[in-house]
UniProtKB/TrEMBL annotation:
It comes from Luteibacter yeojuensis. The keyword Ribosomal protein does not apply. This is Type II secretion system F family protein. It is found in: Cell inner membrane. The lineage of its organism: Bacteria, Pseudomonadati, Pseudomonadota, Gammaproteobacteria, Lysobacterales. InterPro entries: GspF/PilC, T2SS_GspF/T4SS_PilC_CS, T2SS_GspF_dom, T2SS_GspF_sf.
Length: 421
């Protein structure tokens, strides 16, 4: 009987949530008691309820229109991790200040410029009003709020310290996004150099070299070997420029598709990237920082170590380190110490292993992990700044050598003709 009642209540709660999710967004205009025109938006089942709510607030409804649905999919731009990080800090600050959760979601949603994220927060708020817990409501959007995020929120709800955990989560998201931003900065610079070098070369071969080629032909000059190489390259590009561009674009698509669909290829790329001079070291330090920060946060939240390692495996930003963390999880699950499991992977520096060992022995593992994270976050910052300063002269040499070499090869016949006259 009790089970049947529980099932009935569960079905009723599910139906209530489904009904809440069917609410439609309406844009309205109304006159207040002073005759001043007001406008806004409101979710309701129909326009009549919107008008009733406006009258209840002492306003005279003028127009109530259902918000038009976007022509192509959901409106608004993509929800970025940075949006989630900012939201995490806002909700943590409001709950720590005593603002009720539903009201906090209302305030944050109304301040969102990203329409898609705004609608998402409104939907989460509606689910909470329908009886769902915060981690259950966030579970409707697993892409934006991953398993680690939801597990931390769940731990905070279970322990009755949700505001504290949300503050910890906010700090964690800000630090992780800061590291990711630094890595993107480190990789973006050389990638853009390659793109610029390719475009400059194509422009020279397609538009500049043919002009000189015609001049050489009219003069009947014998071309030196460097000039012949450039001219032949120009002729090839002029004849097959469409094939070259198509091959480059196709190669990019094939590369991305292979990385997404082939685990072995993705693992190979990740392993090779860690061996690239300078950049590989930055990626390695970033993985260590994210590992230490994430494990420290989950452990501090009271998540059991084995479960914490399971969640951390997907948060390192590296397939190689993610697999190592899963191996550590298996070792810890059979009774091994964390520092011993770390040592077996041969991926963690001795300093990290030793600080982890001290943390385990002193009962302050989370504190030690945060210290490790801070150290490697600072190392990443310094390494990226150093890389930027080193790349600038290197880039000048590459572009200067490429453009200068082509220009010199084109002027060699001119110098030869001038010398014989």
């Amino acid at each position: 009987m009790a089970v049947a009642t529980a099932n009935k209540n569960t079905r009723a709660l599910g139906a209530a949530r489904a009904q809440v999710n069917k609410l439609t967004m309406y844009d309205w205009t109304a006159l207040d008691k002073r005759g001043k025109r007001m406008s806004g938006e409101l979710q309701a089942k129909n326009a009549a309820l919107v008008k009733a709510e406006l009258r209840r607030q002492g306003m005279n409804p003028q127009t109530v229109r259902e918000r038009a649905k976007p022509l192509f999919g959901s409106s608004g731009s993509t929800v970025k991790p940075r949006d989630v990080a900012i939201f995490s800090r806002q909700i943590a600050t409001m709950m720590a200040s005593g603002v009720p959760m539903v009201q906090a979601f209302d305030i944050i949603a109304n301040g969102q410029k990203n329409v898609r994220f705004k609608n998402m927060l409104i939907d989460v708020k509606s689910n909470i009003e329908g009886g769902a817990s915060l981690h259950e409501a966030l579970g409707q959007y697993p892409v934006q709020f991953d398993e680690l995020y939801r597990n931390l929120v769940h731990a905070g709800e279970s322990a009755g310290v949700l505001d504290t955990i949300l503050d910890t989560v906010a700090t964690y998201k800000e630090r992780v996004e800061g590291i990711k931003s630094k890595i993107k900065k480190a990789l973006f610079y050389p990638a853009m150099v390659m793109v610029v070098a390719f475009l400059v070369t194509m422009i020279l071969l397609l538009f500049v070299v043919p002009v000189f080629q015609q001049t050489f032909k009219d003069a009947g000059a014998e071309l030196p070997v460097p000039t012949m190489v450039v001219v032949k390259a120009s002729e090839f590009v002029q004849a097959y420029w469409w094939a070259i561009i198509g091959a480059v674009v196709a190669a990019g698509f094939v590369f991305v598709a292979a990385k997404k669909r082939s685990a072995k290829f993705a693992h190979f790329l990740d392993r090779m990237s860690l061996k690239i001079p300078v950049i590989g070291n930055i990626l390695r330090q970033s993985a260590l920082a994210r590992f230490a920060r994430t494990l420290g946060v989950t452990f501090q939240a009271g998540v059991p170590l084995v479960e914490a390692l399971e969640a951390v495996s997907g948060a390192t930003g590296s397939i190689v380190y993610g697999e190592a963390v899963l191996q550590m999880r298996d070792d810890v699950s059979v009774g091994h110490q964390l520092q011993l499991a770390m040592r077996q992977t041969n991926l963690f520096p001795n300093m990290v292993v030793q600080m982890t060992a001290i943390g385990e022995e002193s009962g302050s593992l989370d504190h030690m992990l945060f210290k490790v994270a801070e150290f490697y976050e600072e190392e990443v910052n310094n390494a990226v700044d150093t890389l930027s300063s080193l790349l600038e002269p290197f880039i000048m040499v590459i572009l200067g050598g490429l453009v200068g070499g082509m220009v010199i090869s084109l002027y060699l016949p001119i110098f030869k003709i001038a010398g014989t006259t």
